[in-house]
Amino acid sequence: MIMSSFINFPKRLKPVSWYFAIRCGSSSTLAPGRIYSQRHLFEVKKTQMKANNPEKYALASDFLAHRADRPKDYKPDTSADRSITPSPQEKRLLVLTGMYKRESDIPEFISEVRIAMMKERLNFMVSLCFLVTLVIAFLTTIKTMYRTRTIAVGDS
């Protein structure tokens, strides 16, 4: 396969040989002069972040140095997370997951973080239902297995 470019194949087999040369060729080798250390990449990213977004920080120490003159209970004026209007389905799921008692209790705008929490709870509930169903199916199979064994062997 390595020397597929030097072997003379019939025309109908040539696409197959090129396919294997492409599939088996090494794409993980780096081009010369393109080897970067992780530290170098981190420094580049840090510089880009400071140039593009001066209010965002690459390191926690940068952030703490920026707000060293502010009190500890400092909170920004604007909310960090976006608010969205939940759809009727999301409202039902918010009630189902226990985040709110009734649909009428849900405010008009909800934080995206709240929606993400609802989805995490929903994933947990679905996983739990799946595991319970799996255990019930396993126990039912075991019960059926013992019942059919006593029928086949008979009570002795």
UniProtKB/TrEMBL annotation:
UniProt-annotated location(s): Membrane
Transmembrane segments: 122-142
GO CC field: membrane
Keywords: Membrane, Transmembrane, Transmembrane helix
Keyword Nucleus tagged: no
Record has Transmembrane as a keyword: yes
Alphabetical list of InterPro entries matching this protein: DUF1075
Membrane topology value: Single-pass membrane protein
Highest taxon of the lineage: Eukaryota
UniProt-listed Pfam families: DUF1075
Protein name in the entry: Bm290
Gene assigned in the entry: Bm290
